[in-house]
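Submission sheet (multi-component)
Chains listed below:
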Amino acid sequence: MHPLSSLCEAEISLSTKLVRGLHEPGTKLRFKGITTHEPSRKEMQQYRAQSDVKSYTPPRRSWVNYYLTGTASFFEVIINLTTGTIEKSIEVPAGFHGPVDDEEIIAVEKIALEDPRTKVEIEKLKLPDGAVVVCDPWIWGADGVADDVRQYQCYMYMRDPNKPAELDSNHYAFPLTFSPVVDAVTMQVTRIDYLPTGAGFETTSTQPWRATKPNEYIPELNEKRTGLKPLRVLQPEGASFALEGDILKWQKWEMRTSFNYREGMVLHEVSFDGRPLFYRVSLSDMSIPYSDPRAPFHKKQAFDLGDAGAGLMANDLKLGCDCLGAIAYKDGLIADDQGRPVVKPNAMCIHEQDAGILWKHTNYRTGRPVVVRRRELVIQSIITVSNYEYILAFIFDQAGEMTYEVRATGILSTQPIDPGVEVPYGTVVHDGVLAGYHQHILSLRVDPELDGDMDNRLVYEETSALPRHPETNPHGNGYVSKRTTVEKAGGYDLESKKNRVFMIENPKKKNPVNGKNVAYKMHIPPVQPLLAEENSYHYKRADFGDHSVYVTKYQENELFAGGQYTNQNKQTTGVRKWAARNEDISNDDIVVWVQFGLQHVPRIEDFPVMPVEIVKVAFKPVNFFTRNPAIDVPQSTQEFNQSTLLNGHQNGVNDNKSECSSCQ
Amino acid sequence: MHPLSSLCEAEISLSTKLVRGLHEPGTKLRFKGITTHEPSRKEMQQYRAQSDVKSYTPPRRSWVNYYLTGTASFFEVIINLTTGTIEKSIEVPAGFHGPVDDEEIIAVEKIALEDPRTKVEIEKLKLPDGAVVVCDPWIWGADGVADDVRQYQCYMYMRDPNKPAELDSNHYAFPLTFSPVVDAVTMQVTRIDYLPTGAGFETTSTQPWRATKPNEYIPELNEKRTGLKPLRVLQPEGASFALEGDILKWQKWEMRTSFNYREGMVLHEVSFDGRPLFYRVSLSDMSIPYSDPRAPFHKKQAFDLGDAGAGLMANDLKLGCDCLGAIAYKDGLIADDQGRPVVKPNAMCIHEQDAGILWKHTNYRTGRPVVVRRRELVIQSIITVSNYEYILAFIFDQAGEMTYEVRATGILSTQPIDPGVEVPYGTVVHDGVLAGYHQHILSLRVDPELDGDMDNRLVYEETSALPRHPETNPHGNGYVSKRTTVEKAGGYDLESKKNRVFMIENPKKKNPVNGKNVAYKMHIPPVQPLLAEENSYHYKRADFGDHSVYVTKYQENELFAGGQYTNQNKQTTGVRKWAARNEDISNDDIVVWVQFGLQHVPRIEDFPVMPVEIVKVAFKPVNFFTRNPAIDVPQSTQEFNQSTLLNGHQNGVNDNKSECSSCQ
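Outcome: structure written.
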């Protein structure tokens, strides 16, 4: 096993066995994640310094979180798999909790639905016969009010009462007005909350249900648009990438892929044309804070990776549905709540796509065009987080550019609203249905090793006007660029009026032609910072929500921008805290955290399922090469591409003539 | 002929004939553009108010610009083609000039190269035998210095002196240090300018050429990358769009396409699902101001539409090269300098493309995924403006979204620089070659008629935190949105910290579910405003460069954001001037101008030809429909898509097992 590989089944099983060995036989344990614990920086440096013959290999390790079932005792264990020994075993301090898991979510729904108090509320609704109530258990969030215990806020919905047997009826169209609270330790309902449905904070007791219509997304319950002809992507000679185990090679790119329950896809040792670029790239977390100030909605803030897991929630990607063309799949491997290895089939797909023209020039004197198309490599995973979906993809092009693209889709989180009522923190998307405003703030963790050195530097470049001056700028058109080194760890912002562009540089490597430090720049789309007030729990917890860029000095185990344990966390434990060390980082082993995302004011077109909103971060070489690194890509030709001519129109035969003849 | 169609050949010929009739027979005229002069608002309202039987049709008109050859006398003529009469004929006032034309550019190059003074300079260079010098004539720009006469600044380059017979040698790798000035009236060289090549403003006399290497882009002079396997797009049942003359229909979209010498592609009467959205959409101009304050570079500011023409410079798109898949082509029709109709073959291509997933949801309880792919319609044109290329595309999706996408590629504009010298307004991209910083600011003109009314409103929506308050925001998470009407014509800016989103609303049409005004929002990427100083000619001329959004009240003939005549213009004559009328526009016939683009600090990877930089503006429905307008698109299935499985990996068979067995 390569030191950076994901755990294999035997390693998961060994971890579970060793952890169980820490307790009396028969002790019920609930596992909350078993993942690779990567080697330290020093260990990897030692390993990688070797030539092809690797006499030294760092030990394999795993990281395990688990509960004593039915208690709040939560543990963190690091296991040396090579020696079969426990390296560290601690009880996680109070105030920190484990994430959800699949089995628990299903169990909580059942508990909520079967509780006598829930049944009392359902009675009051006076639903049609056979109506089926559904429950979306939500992580509790944090508000400092009776939230020491891990618990769930269960938002209640209903299938279309006229089609209760339809398992995939869009229950979000029928939000109910009461919400059971389930204690995750005792696995019991502790009380029923009521949701405000008017314009103010007041709640009322559950009333008879007002009949409204459904809003379904499954195709058999919708009209079917016509006229769409098939479009197929063929690669008759196969794909251009080579996937050998975890190693992926394509068009001068080389990288290692891995997968774990929390981050989903992780890339290691990303290089282009033999030159290292990124040691490790991964989605670090995402925070979705909601804007409704009224209880219990004020607690809604999901950390989809820390509270759940991008690997845990990865879809089983289907050939020809999720991916088009010639596709390779990779499974993921995680553990279930009993510590047993579980395959996540087809958790990642790998394929090429054509993305239009990459470069073109025509010398107008000769009319000779040279055009090269932009082929891309896509490594993709899709996660379902209860109502929402995120399509996550690493995309590489042939000119040394890496992009991380996120598409938000799925179903808005809905809550009930009385007819005729408006509130300034949500949109009515259906009769009786409000979709609250929320933000999606994602954090991409980038651990660079630009051109082979782990010590890199974060800089930003801005362009600014020269002052008008008879000697230096007589006509007032002049402007210059200035590059500023980021000297200290901290959070930094974009400034589009200055065209501020952040770059990762290697100051030890100069471009041989123009002498500039080799660099990679980042195209970061602006996102509104977290709007929650500075002293709120929303703000404290979502460390990374306040700046577009964070940079820290590398320390072991600083992987997750919101901290190790986000669920019901009430403190700042992640990147904001690490950045506050304020270390000198002007030429150091840095980690860059890129924040991006969306302010989501729902529109009715986002319901019942939203058309994707797409956001992406791109990394492009700047004076890293000596010319366009894709100048050698073969020209785009009809022989290669075999496009089809649709309208029998060739080479300048003007079929507009027919229009013209009528105008004489 | 439909009132909004482009001119046909006979109409161009008639225009020329009538214009010639204004002068003595045999008078030499130089034509600078013959285009449709669209009907007035009133005429079109009268026409469109009719049912299918159109008893009233507005007259067909053309707009003609021309010079008396060899003079500065420049004319603007509007012709009623239906009656065959001149409606208006004026001499364009001094201070305004016509654009370039193809024949003139070729002629100027010849004049510059053959002038004795040029030959003297070439002698001084002491070039290798057979070396071929090349000339890129540039529009003059404006600086208030001897610029009343229309003239050209001729930037000089050389083919690889070791391969002078290679017609497509990248001459931009060999910029020369002298620059002839050509008077466009007399068509003669008036003097030789010298280019600064050091760090300062000084110029020297022409020195013997220092031998440097070439930097070629044509494939036969470059290495050829291997490993790229073919990727073909097939549409075995044909494409899903219908193109009947100018009318294009696809997946509920309907629109008219047309083409003219200045704007290239124009769309009229864009509607979705029978509901009108945009009366007219077109690229209005683009300005490329340069940053080097030293003469003659201080004058470099190109208006690629006003100074030349997006139709004039449109590429002949080649099947299988520029476009992949099943493609339809449309020719364009323009006029040459003698007023003869000239076909621009394959100036526009129309095709579909797959752009990944459009929407997806999986009910985690059942595991049933519903996924729909995002098919797009692309209407594309590519323009070559001397060294640069722009790929321009209107892109439509199935959920009512329209995008205008621009890709900048082609070759940087270069100038000579001495070895070892750096300047703060350019990047050295090759030995002896500097690429100056510049901005690309594009302006998209959008004339909306949202949901059938020409009177619309521009608004912007912002989200902001509620103040913390025990009664209204006790936990500090609350935030609200606020929509502000733009009451007055003017220029407006983005503000990402407030998540300011501009929308076009129709206040007369309410969403039947949530009562909001139907609207379309605009996703506008931020661009640094024009950096040139307020009193500079750069600034005055590039009206639209100072704000991301302009809104004006519709007036006839206000089509071009930089004004009607941009070439060597020294005043503000376009959108900034019109917006300064400051009319009330809170519910009126408005025109929206969207500015976007790039601050271009060249990197060495942009040479010899730059990988595309992509910018786009998107228009999305907001409470315009009652649910996701693409909820009816058929599901993505393997049967339809016929993807290929590459790694023999099916349905959860874990082929990671092999890795695991070695770790026991």
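Remark: Confidence is low (pLDDT under 50) at residues 649-664 of chain B.
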